[in-house]
Amino acid sequence: MSDPIDFAVGGAGVPSGKLGDVQAAADLDRRLVLATQGGLALVARPYALLAEQLGTSEALVRERLAVMLADGRIRRIGAVPNHYAIGYPANGMSVWDIDDKCIDAVGEQVGGLPFVTHCYRRPRHLPDWPYNLFAMVHAATREAALERVGEIAAAIERDFPGVCRSRDVLFSAGILKKTGLRIGA
Fold it and tell me: Which pTM value belongs to this model?
C-alpha cells in the first residue's frame, strides 16, 4: 500500500520541516488518535488494519505512534483488561506509608512483583492520609488479595527493614472508568 502522505522524514520520525509535511504529520497523528482511542482491533495485525482504515502504510502508523510515545503526546499503548470479566473480582489497592528516604527503591521492587499491576508514589495528605506508595493487586477472592498484600509486606520488611510504618487495603466495588482521554472529530 502506498502512503498518501508524502513527506520526508528528518530522523526519528520527525517531518523534514516543510509546512505541508508538518501539517500532514499532524493530520495523520490526529486521525491515529481518533482511530485508536476506543482501542485496537483484536486481530493478528492491528496496526496493519489501522493503516488500511486510514489509507496509509503499517510502517507509517508504527512510526507516528512511536513519535507520539517518544514526545509524550501518548503515554502508553497497552491492554486494559476488565479484571471482573476474567475472574478477578477482588481488586485491592494496597496503600503504604514508606519512609521517604527509600520509597523509590521500595516502589521499584513492589512494582516488579508479577501480581502487582500498578505501583506508584503519591503525596501524603497529613494528618488523615499518611500513605505515599500505592500498589494494585487483583485476585479471585479478598482473602487471596490480602495474601498477596502480605507477600508485599514480607518482601518490604525483608529487604527494607523498618521502612513501612503502616499499610491498608482498599477494595473496589466496581469499575468506574476503563478508557483514556477522548477527543472529538
Answer: 0.60
Does residue 1 share a domain with residue 75?
yes
Domain count, the chain: 2
Last residue of a domain, one of 29, 44, 79: 79
Residue 51: give the domain boundaries. Answer: 1-79
Q: Which residue has the cell 495523520?
A: 28
Q: Mark whether 68 and 128 lie in a shared domain.
A: no
Is residue 53 assigned to a domain?
yes
Locate cell 494528618: which residue? Answer: 127
Q: Answer yes or no: is pLDDT of 17 > 90.
A: no
Query: Are 19 and 49 in a shared domain?
Result: yes
Closest CA to 137 of 159, 153, 161, 157: 153
Task: Label residue 85 by pLDDT band (50, 70, 90).
Answer: low
Q: Of the residues 59, 79, 99, which one is the last residue of a structural domain? A: 79
pLDDT interval class at 170 (50, 70, 90) = very high
Burial classification of residue 133, based on how many CB atoms lie within 10 Å of its CB (0-12 exposed, 13-18 middle, 19 or more buried)? buried
pLDDT class for 75, splitting at 50, 70, 90?
confident
For residue 79 the three cell numbers come to: 491492554
Best CA proximity match to 47, nearest among 33, 32, 62: 62
Q: Are 33 and 179 in contact (CB under 8 A)?
A: no
